[in-house]
Design a protein that fits this description.
Elements: E1 9-10, H1 13-19, H2 32-37, H3 56-69, H4 75-82, H5 91-105, H6 110-119, E2 133-134, H7 139-149, H8 154-165, H9 171-180, H10 182-192, H11 198-206, H12 219-223, H13 226-235, H14 241-255, H15 259-272, H16 279-285, H17 287-292, H18 295-300, E3 309-316, E4 320-322, E5 326-335, E6 341-352, E7 358-370, E8 375-383, E9 395-403, E10 406-416
Helix pairs in contact: 1-14, 4-5, 5-7, 7-8, 7-9, 8-9, 9-10, 10-13, 11-13, 11-14, 14-15, 14-16
Length: 421
């Protein structure tokens, strides 16, 4: 039975959730998060999969909208290109199928084709504030059409992506133009950074991030951050948290290859605008650097890179952990300082790799103000269960406690895949 899915109302905060997801392989798999956000909706059909948004009714309605603005649109041919293969296709396959059908049925003149798509667009989302707006997944195939067919028509394409991002997002497709002609696109983005629409301003940052979730890596930005830093400078104090959050995520991306540059940039921004509270922004931009124990980032955030604490009573519940169970441990941190200390407490699991070497992964525990001479007791159970993003190899692993980027002590444990009989 065909699943019918209503148009969802997406609040800007869902973009914040998406921005923190690790980059994956499938460009549009991030929409799964939208499914989770709205799974409890009364209008959500049982058994709904994210690919089911692109169903016959939605696609036919889109064709009808195009027909209204261009009476010569070949609706039957458009649907014939898409619907027969629909049942066996994934979300991404369906999206690309719709995009390719547009290429086959819209006028060959690109500017004319774009004009038809723009006339058929729904009303934009609110230009500011945190009110809900109507977001349309059906725009994603249209931005894909623009990036595939519009590389020879940059001005027309950028105008189209600007209008489409006001209804949805064009962050995955803008980067393809930026990669090919960064000088030309940068000139446009500098103007967009002052646009009254927050979605357009956010696109300036999000569309040029080196590692935007599920988008193509922008190697040119990874190699030369100066291509985007001046754009971020225009947005760092944007009135909308939605935009500033993207800028912080962009800096966090850059910090993976250029840590000192990011710290110096944030330091400069704070010195230039001491009246602006940038604490939250800076924490978000430096989250990867804090995990890595970067001394400059820790100092910028008020954490002493040489914490005066001692690790006490560090114990494992068991030196052997069964895959599917939890690694349980406890420890105490005792202050040796006469002053209170701001501490960021993490733990690292050194996972065994296929070649037998160990590779660390940092996990957050807590940020805490430890009073002078006091002691903090912590207990933790960390689940070690099969996940799609990691292969667990049996044998020796290591657990380490880290405070303000400094590893204070470690314990060895052994991971087994089956219990001994």
């Amino acid at each position: 039975m065909q699943v019918e899915v209503p148009v969802w109302r997406i609040v800007p905060q869902t973009h914040f959730i998406l921005a923190d997801i690790n980059t994956g392989d499938c460009q549009f798999a991030r929409f799964i998060v939208f499914l989770e956000v709205f799974r409890s909706s009364e209008t959500m059909a049982e058994g709904f999969q994210i690919r089911d948004y692109y169903n016959a009714k939605v696609i036919t309605a889109f064709a009808t909208d195009l027909k209204k603005v261009w009476t010569a649109f070949p609706t039957t041919a458009f649907l014939h290109h898409i619907l027969p293969s629909l049942p066996d296709q994934s979300f991404s396959d369906r999206l690309q199928s719709i995009s390719r059908a547009l290429e086959k049925t819209l006028p060959q003149d690109f500017q004319e084709a774009v004009g038809i798509l723009l006339k058929a667009l729904p009303e934009p989302m609110p230009v500011s504030g945190d009110g809900a707006g109507t977001a349309h997944f059906i725009i994603a195939p249209q931005t894909a059409f623009i990036s595939r067919c519009g590389q020879g028509h940059v001005e027309v394409s950028l105008h189209a992506l600007k209008e489409m991002t006001r209804r949805f997002t064009a962050e995955w497709d803008l980067r393809l133009f930026f990669e090919k002609d960064p000088v030309r696109v940068r000139k446009v983005l500098k103007k967009w950074a002052r646009d009254p629409d927050q979605h357009v301003r956010r696109l300036v940052s999000e569309g040029t991030r080196p590692y935007v979730p599920w988008g193509k890596k922008l190697a040119i930005v990874e190699a030369d951050p100066s291509l985007t830093l001046d754009l971020l400078d225009l947005l760092k104090h944007d009135q909308e948290e939605y935009v500033r959050r993207s800028v912080a995520n962009h800096l966090n991306d850059l910090s993976k290859k250029h840590p000192d540059l990011v710290v110096s940039t944030l330091t400069r921004w704070q010195l230039e605008s001491p009246e602006v509270d940038m604490a939250k922004f800076t924490r978000h931009a430096c989250r990867t650097l804090v995990k890595k124990g970067h001394r400059g980032a820790l100092k910028l955030l008020g954490f002493d890179p040489r914490p005066k604490v001692e690790l006490r009573h560090f114990t494992l519940a068991s030196p052997v952990v069964q895959l599917g169970d939890a690694l349980a441990f406890s420890f105490e941190l005792e202050s040796t300082s006469r002053r209170d200390q701001q501490l960021v407490v993490d733990f690292l699991v050194y996972f065994r790799k296929a070649n037998g070497s160990l590779s660390p992964k940092v996990f957050k525990l807590k940020n805490v103000l430890l009073a002078a001479g006091s002691c903090l007791a912590i207990e933790k159970k960390h689940a070690i269960r099969p996940i799609t993003t990691r292969v667990y190899y049996p044998g020796e692993h290591r657990l380490s406690i880290q405070v303000n980027g400094v590893e204070l002590g470690s314990k060895t444990f052994y991971l087994v895949h089956s219990r001994a009989k």
